[in-house]
Amino acid sequence: MPKTIQARALLLIYFLVAPALLLKADTIYQATADGRQRAIQRDAILVHQDSSIIIYKHFDLPDMRVEKVQLSEGSLPYMVVTSSIEQRQGIVELWKRFGYTANVTDTSGKTTQVFDAYIDYYPPGGRGSLLVPVPAITSFPLLMSGGAADIQEFSKIDRVDFQNGEVTLTLRNGHVEHGKYLMPITQPAEARFMGISDKYNSSSNDVFDFSEPLYNLKTIVFQQ
Prior knowledge:
Number of helices: 2
Number of domains: 2
Order of helices and strands: HEEEEEHEEEEEEEEEE
Oligomer: single chain
Largest sheet: 10 strands, antiparallel
Strand content: over 45%
Number of strands: 15
Distance between the termini: 9 Å
Radius of gyration: 19 Å
Shape: elongated
Mean pLDDT: 89
C-alpha cells in the first residue's frame, strides 16, 4: 500500500478512535464574526504565543511531515487550549506513524531510525537561511549518469547508497538508478536528510531532532 494512502487510512482510524483513547493535544481556535469559536487546528503542539503571533507545529498530511505554522493576531483573535506533556508526547508518537520512516547510516557507521523524514536545504554548514527559499521535499532528485534528470518519491525508494559523491537509488520495483544528487538551486547550499528520532522531545521548538547533510551519509533504507 503506498505510504500516502496508508497515512490517510491511519488518519481516518485515528479520528474514529481518538475520542475514546483521549489522544488529544493542543487545539487552536479563532473567533468568528458572530462571536463563536471555530477550531482551525486540532492535535497541534503550541510552540510560542504572544500578543501578536501564535506558532504551532502539526503533522501536514499532504506534505507527509511535521511542519511549523505561524498565525498573526488580527481583528478576530485566536485562542489556544493546551494539553498535558503526556498528551503532547502521545501525539508525537502518532505523527511517527504517518510520515516516511528510514534507517539512516552515516559515514562513521552510526545508524539512526528517523521518522517523518524529509530533505531540506540550508547554507553550507547547516545554519541560517538561503537567500532564495527552497521548499522541503519528500522525494529524491537525481542527475543520472547519462545526463537525464529524474525525481523519485520516498514511497518508491527501497534504499539509497552514497559513495564518493555518487548516489545509487534502488527502487521497490527492483529498478536501479545511478547519478549525482540534483540540487534545485545554483547558489551554495547543502541538502540535509531530516526528521524526528525516538529521542524527540515534544516541547522542542524545532520540527526535527535529526539533521545530517547527504554527503555525511552512507545509506538510507526506507521502511514500508
